[in-house]
Amino acid sequence: MKYISTRGDATERGFSDILLEGLAPDGGLYLPRHYPKVDAATLARWRGLCYADLAFEILSLYIDDIPAADLKRLCEATYTEAVFGTPRITPLKKLADTHAGGVYLQALSNGPTLAFKDMAMQLLGHLFEYELARRGEALNILGATSGDTGSAAEYAMRGKKGVRVFMLSPHGRMSPFQQAQMFSLQDANIHNIAVAGVFDDCQDIVKAVSNDLAFKRQYRIGTVNSINWARLLAQVVYYFAGYFQATTDDTQRVSFAVPSGNFGNICAGHVARMMGLPIAQLVAATNENDVLDEFFRTGTYRPRATAETHETSSPSMDISKASNFERFVFDLLGRDGQRTKQLFGHTLAREGGFTLTPEEFARIPAYGFVSGKSTHAERLATIRRTWGESRMLVDTHTADGLKVAREHLRPGVPMLVLETALPAKFADTIEEALGFKPEPPPALRGIEALPKRFVVMAPDVAAVKRHIEAHCQDA
Ligand SMILES: *Cc1c(COP(=O)(O)O)cnc(C)c1O
């Protein structure tokens, strides 16, 4: 499989070429030249596979520059009961709703950091280690986090050869649990930098360092952000895994509801649907930051300014600009790279948004997308209802997904809501809804008391660079 850019640069690249890269040189995102179609016989064969083998089959369709035996070994090393807590990896739980097709939660959050980002990041850790060893290279991953992504990256890269992680976070602004998760890691290749500032300061530093091309090259600075194609690809697997659990034969259809921020998770559902997985609807759920809901209702995409972005109780969906969204729009526009470039490279930059033509907008139903939004009060009500009816605790993001899912139920079609985090990560809001705090899983109880390993730094680009220089020979 070869990969192309969404903005018309047709230079074809292999999977291993784009694995360690961010944006395409023309500013677009990488996508496969086409989506492999999965026929009925293949679906029937895959139904019986365990998660690691299913991952191998799907990845094989998109990766032809890693020998099959190696790829299989990497999938088997990633998707284990030891890492994800259950042999099914992403089991379904049925809610008490009376909806004829059934309403399910698909558990994606049983990995080491209790959020769905582990599903892809754990694979990325193995892929990076493999590819860097093959090239005889090393990589220093620099990132900024307000919580989920940074810890998922650190747990995926800890102890991996050839990789170091320098993760900036706003000092004192993460929850005690999140801080403990990251700062208790004692691996020599993990470097936590608590910046005396806010998340935007952290992000500005990452941008400034990455824009210094000489520094970036000399110190081999890379990222693991959500536009990485390998992350998206890894996420395609659980749509198939969820489908097989909710159905008994391959003529049935299901819908998925996805708590969305950067549009990475639901974009993987779009890819699965394009491959032929019988998905009726892809339900994009947003919180008060409703850029995506507005788009699917009106055809206007209007990212908000940072100052206009609400701080909500489902913080991992508090995004202003959905970084993966361009991939879907490229497909919607019939893979017209010039039109995509016009919208994302020009109109968006000049006017702060764009509106599809009526003809373009009319194509959306054919792609299965619908949407909705959820507010803080609705989030609390959903957490209460789910506890009351089903005796299940859902986290704030999953609650947004569930609230919007219920607005789009269709007779006889199972609705699978992706559970993107465990409630223990957002204990304060659960307590607000129910009057008690959820327990973290046994393995993580008491981590707040473990010794912490981090440095505090001023929001100063030069100081961060010196820190990287001083530590990039470690481990
Ligand atoms: C990252 C995240 C999301 C949003 O996922 P996208 O792929 O950015 O749309 C939703 N919920 C949780 C808990 C997350 O960590």
Strand content: 5-15%
In CATH, the architecture of one domain is: 3-Layer(aba) Sandwich
Structural class: alpha/beta
What is the name of the CATH topology of one domain?
Rossmann fold
- Enumerate the strands of the largest sheet in spatial order, edge to edge or round the barrel: 3-4-14-9-10-13
Task: Characterize the structure shown.
With 475 residues, the chain is of the alpha/beta class. It has a domain at 89-114 and 230-434: Rossmann fold, CATH 3.40.50. 42% of the residues lie in helices and 14% in strands. It contains 20 helices and 15 strands. The strands form four sheets. A six-stranded mixed sheet has the order 3-4-14-9-10-13, sandwiched between helices. Strand 5 (139-144), helix 7 and strand 6 form a beta-alpha-beta unit. Helix 17 (376-390) packs across helix 18 and helix 17 packs across helix 19 (427-434). The longest helix is centred in the N-terminal third of the chain and has 19 residues, at 117-135. The radius of gyration is 21 Å and the shape is globular. The two termini are 35 Å apart. 48% of the residues are buried.
Keywords:
alpha/beta, 6-stranded mixed β-sheet, 20 helices, binds pyridoxal-5'-phosphate, single chain, 5-stranded parallel β-sheet, 475 residues, Rossmann fold, 14% strand
Task: Set out the fold topology.
Layout: E1 3-5, H1 15-19, E2 30-32, H2 40-46, H3 51-60, H4 68-78, H5 81-84, E3 92-94, E4 103-107, H6 117-135, E5 139-144, H7 148-157, E6 163-170, H8 176-183, E7 190-195, H9 199-211, H10 213-218, E8 221-222, H11 229-246, E9 254-259, H12 264-274, E10 279-286, H13 291-298, E11 300-301, H14 325-332, H15 337-351, E12 354-355, H16 358-361, E13 369-373, H17 376-390, H18 396-405, E14 415-419, H19 427-434, E15 455-457, H20 461-471
Parallel strand pairs: 4-14, 5-6, 5-8, 6-7, 7-15, 9-10, 9-14, 10-13
Antiparallel strand pairs: 1-2, 3-4, 11-12
Bound molecules: pyridoxal-5'-phosphate.
